Records
---
Amino acid sequence: MNDTATAAVRVAGLTKRFGTGEAAVLALRGIDLEVRTGELLMLVGPSGCGKTTLISVLAGIMDKTDGALDVLGVDPGALPVNDRTRWRGANIGFVFQAFNLMPALTAAENVSIPLLIRNVPQAEALRRARAMLARVELANRVDALPAQLSGGQQQRVAIARALVHEPQLVVCDEPTSALDHETGHHVMDILHGMTRESRRTLIVVTHDARIFGFADRIARMDDGRVVAVETGAGNSLLPSPASAGEGPGVRA
Amino acid sequence: MWQIALKMLTGDRLKYFGLIAGIAFAALLIAQQASILAGFIRQTGAFIRDTAQADLWLMDPQVRFSQDPVPMRDTVAQLARGVEGVEWAIPLFQGYTRGKLPDGTRFTLILVGLDDATLMGGPPEMVQGQLRDLRNDRAVLIDAINSPKKLLMKQGGGRALTVGDRFTVNDNEVQIVGSYEGRRSFFWEPVVYTTYSRALSLVPPERNQLSFVLIRLAPGADAAKVRAALEARTGLMTLTNEEFIARTADYISTETGIVINFGMAIALGFLIGTLVAGQTFYNFTLDNLRHYGALKAMGVTNGRLAGMVLLQAMVVAVLGYCIGVGLGAASGKAMEGAGLAFSMPWQIPAITAAAILSVSAIAAMLSLRQVFRLEPAVVFKG
């Protein structure tokens, strides 16, 4: 089987319920989805449709309620809490809507965090962080604090932080929503290029239709369900664009 | 990760200094109030230390503290001299009595009568005159350090008595022939030295007037045996200098409200410090909750986060403690000049350190509950 066709994420009948009894809210109502290794999948849909809940469950930071879940070969929900936390640290990269950079740390120090979490010595972590910042075109801002960086620069720092420890799966929550069109496009260009060359799987939650062109596939969600999966303009991984909408794991 | 924890702590200078100030305030209150209490307690032994030329004090068993002598028969000193192992035993008079300054100001004084022949038990350091000047007619010695305040002629232009001046003790005129450097005492009244026989002539007569017998042990004598023999022969009690100091301190501590009063101040300092530091640290952690959430999402375990928060708390605690205790010691130095009681034995910084570390640990624990409860998914909320 072609490497690009193997599944990084496979979910079947995935549900997530918040609360109990009459106050219970079903945020995910039986999601079936497969995301291939090296693929860029965008999750789109109206606010409250369950996109962020879905990536939270996939990234192992929220427990599922029911259903089958396989992320990079494991069900994170089945791991003990500390093991799951370590698994996340080793395998998942995060890009947040609000960047979530530590205001007291320089760009290089922020990027080094995932390496320090994995006990890489500080000097080595900073060296690799600086190299990663150079790849996101911030070689001259390694010592800048987040407050000294523009929104686009902060998001590029966040991208460097998400990729510095070479995770297999990167999840992004509205990575361009706080940026203007040109900057958002540039940020996506960098993110897309870096994940593509290292064949990392990328799941992006977004409302920003202007970046849909980067997607290999676009999963449309509504009311806790994936209602459609479309082939994106950026598709270069799928064996045949024509079959993408009905390929493995694509069940709307 | 400890570098990140420290950077998080010091990143917001205002909050960082606020945290340290809260802890420093608590440490200052605890250390300063405890040191003032210790100073007062220490000062209760001033008279005994000033008179500490003997090995033992012989006294009535009912004596509760140094300024509370129970009169004994004058023959006790002679009985003591007959005990094997006693090199010398001399009488000492000590008692409260009344005096009047030349301007008419009345005051209470502690009159001390030294053995006429040896003048043993006198003040350790003379400032003006000689101890032997006490043999002059009507001679007394006054405290050069404390007299300016305690022997002040309020109706005579505010002048303090000095060497050469005269005043009366129970209407008997005495003359100041010298001054000594006395330790600051818990007991406010001025201590005036004279000879034993003159002291007895200055105070109203009583059947028994001997206050204490000061005893020096012969070289090589077995102190325990000598004490047992003295007590058996006289039916009285012997105490070493340190035992007498401790007995006095115990009495003042337990029978006056001083410990309760200062204890309340110390407890209040601890409580206020705990609340200030706890609230500030709790707020600091809450302000950083989003970042802890991001760290959790990125793979930092609860245990490691706990280590980070505890490290932050301990850094603040150590810095706040050093500043607080340093300020406390400095204020003590300043108070020394003003004549206030202040003593900071090693136990006070040690107890303060334990209290401050506890306060900080409690604050960290309370904050950690929020961190542990935190769902890492909070990071996805824009």
Note: Residues 181-197 of chain A form the longest helix (17 residues).
---
Amino acid sequence: MSNNNIDIVKVIQSKLGDKVQIQLGQLGTAAINVSNGLHREVLKAMLEADEKTGLTAISGVDLGTTLGVLYHVHTSNAFVTIRAEVPKDNPKIQTIVDLIPGAAFHEYEVSDLLGVIFVGNELKGHLVLSENWPEGIYPLRKDVKATEVKLSPAPEEEKAPDIGKLVKIIIGPQHPALLEPEKFAVTVDGEIVTKVEPRIGYVHRGIEKASESRTYVQDVYLVERICGICNACHAYGFVAAVEKILKTQVPERAKYLRVVTLELNRLHSHLLTLGHAGLEIGYETLFQYFWRDREPIMDLIELTSGNRVYASLMTIGGVRRDIKDVDVPKIKTTLEDLRKKIPFYRQVYENEPSIKARMRNVGRLSREDAIKLCVVGPVARGSGYDIDVRKDDPYEAYGEIPFNKIVYKEGDTWARMNVRMDEVEESINIIQYALDHMPKGPFRIDVPRNVIAGESISRNEAPRGELFYYVKSNGTANPERVKVRTPTFANIPSFLQTAIGENIADVPPNFVSLDPCFSCTDR
Amino acid sequence: MIDIWLILRILIFPGFAFILLLTLFCDWIERKLEARIQNRVGPLVAGPAGLFQPLADFIKLLTKEDIEPRDAKKTVFKFAPLVAFTIMVFAICFLPIDGASVLSTGGFSGDLIVILTFSTVASFLLFLSGWASANPYGTISSARVLTQFLGYDIPLFLIALTPAFIVGSLSIFNIASGFTLASGQLVPIILLAPWAFVLFIITMQAELEKDPFDVPDAESELVGGVCTEFTGAKLAFLHLTRDVQIVFGSALVVELFLGGPYGPVFFGVPAFWYSLWFVLKLLAVVIITEYITTLFARLRIDQVLTANWKILLPAAILSLMLTVILVHWVYPLV
Amino acid sequence: MTNTVTWARVKSPWVLHFNSGACNGCDIEIVALLTPKYDVERFGVKLEPSPRHADVLLVTGCVTQQCAERLKRVYDQMPQPKFVVAIGACACSGGVFQGNYNVVGGVDKVIPVTAYIPGCPPRPEAILDGVVKLLNALNPPKPKKLSKQEKQAEALKTEQAKQAVAAPEVVVASQVVKSVIEEVKPIVKQ
């Protein structure tokens, strides 16, 4: 049940108005400056008022003598940032893992990259940094130069102690099932999984640090390459945050063109996942069919932007290229052809016995767990937790385009795949509506090279879920801090929970159903 | 006294060389069929229409460096693939291919049980090779191989006994000739017990570890399955053993249900026509099994075992009982 | 005999794909090679799951620190003869991520590379072209059978080349000295 009428800022004001400082309109609906552990009080008040409160991200910022810790919290109708600060010589702050279990990974990351110690949830080892990274050096601090870090020799890999009849299977960095490297140590008892220990960080390229030494325009191309599959959403997230700082009004035509690009991105990503799921359960024929139908979409992306994968259409102030009127009929016919094929795939998912045997009741995630672990995207919508940034917090032209939010209640792998299939059809509808109602006019405006000092956030619905950007500028041509929270980073803890108690053979389809993208996770 | 004729039969036709070429040809048929169903083309460049692709794979594997892991069990690791291949080829030598088997005897009573046992031993050697390669993926995969083929051997034997009951003999030659009706006409067993044919195809699918019973070879969980650690010549023979098993299974279906190599003889030497019918029927069975492979996803190991113990085994017993009833009371009247 | 072996190796290259820290762009283009539109199985290329089975290692991604060790291990596990293809701008040199703190930058800093395929990401046709070029390079070109006149012309050319090599050494050296003096003069005058 969503309490759409709760004014969360009023709630906080009434409970803690004298102890905290509330700035309306900053970093979302409001920014709340707290000190000394009061962030837990604010969170408790919010959780009591609205059950759909969840953590979107924790940003760590180097502020000179102190480290800023920003908690970005979303509720059913608002987005609040809680700002806390810790001194650099004693960077300790209370953890919130007992209030919101999904915060664990976020806290680990801030500990790893900035050195903040969350009392009650300390990080052992490294999360995204490599094992030969020297202790005590935190890359995102301003005094650390990227090229001058001396790496320590890698520690000896300890042999795992014998745990009786439990066998540890390493689904390792090189694995045919995974397109990307990351390690999962799965402990099995016979065939049943008892524990999953992830090791991420194989794809950590230090993009957040690199963005601080490049200009804003260069950064658009850099953050786009965080992930090849959802690249338009990354570019959009960064561009939208910068435009909020500059307070630019993007022309109407650019808004609709951005919607077309984002939805084409969603189409190709969903078809990719649906095919990849077939490969995981040994259904090669389905994989080939889905990827065959994905190729016309890649042709459309090439038609609108010039490149198959990296459209690079987003730029600060609008889009880089226009869609010519002569191209619109081709786009529409290709989308209609794809729409005609969807009933075939629907009936495969409905009637095919081997798919149902492998996907039904696999990886069950209940609605309560989904809310507590703060999952996003089709994983949340497949468990009955209906969040969709396009509807909850409309951006660009999404507020004017009618479409449905797809929610399934079963919470298993089959439901998540069906969510994606239905979203394919919705995306086709959105693109056709946008092409029909495209306003005329310019598609980009000029913006100054130096961005005035300020900070802002942006959220958008990437194919995998809510993508969050926090950008802080300092008046120069380079940003001060760019923080990215990707949807897979929020969804991985749910996999660690749903895999337990199931067959080892269920791990691949379960894993693919949350559509993991580790290049997004590690950045 | 050395019989040149027998040696030629063993080495060339219908012996070793013929079986090898037939195996490579069936591999090509499978790859092409799978590609066409998936809207692709399949091997095209190696030879005309990609015909020499399996041969190129085999030769390339033979010339690769042979790596032996330090912790592997040496003797088993070295010899299991070759011995498995040899046993499978030996098993095929008992089947009538051109009217007579390779060893050019008329078969003997009980050779059906003998060749089914050979197939079991070869599968057991595959299990051993996975277990001997000190690799966690190999170990788990070999455990699955063992569970699967031991489980499915029981319905396999039971269903294979159905034609034996109908014909009243355990000799493959007699079963392949078919059942003599009261009118004196010979009919293949498939017309008399079609349910057994369907069950046998499904059981064969599981014995050969093809989709939907592809579990031991599950790439997404177990990397390379049983042959993860093997390279070079040993890998070549492991792959070849898999392919020869497919030929053997299909040949068994042909002999037991489709009337073996016997068919109408139009002119000239009957041996030529018998071989032709045998190859055509074999290709038909290979195509049927490959269709089933591409059309289904892979089942989990517990679903595979449920399918065996709860569905296939009772069905096999029922089929045998039905056959016994039919043979004693119905067929003598026909 | 070696001809048959080379023919077999060229017609049946089995591929292992390893992502050493890539953004996924190159990887999805590699997987797209298996799909009906590009169908790399025509050339006998099969995507193998285990390093022990593969001949060609396709590496994508700027090598991150965490992956460098694993990449070396996977390369060592492959049996000879083996080839490495670096796919994408990141694998060739580090690409957009050069200089980042966690990035080694370029596959050839870790393992020897046989072929480079640039692009961000390279189109599937470009990857296919690169793989086919690698395979053709394995087949050394057969020496052409020359007729008698062609053989005489070849012999004459080699003689002339031998003479020409000895002579210009002095000339070239003096010309170099002259050009250097020309360059230095205006600077010295300033």
Note: The interface with chain C takes residues 31, 35, 38-46, 50, 52-53, 55-60, 63-67, 219, 223-224, 227-232, 235 of chain B (CB under 8 Å).
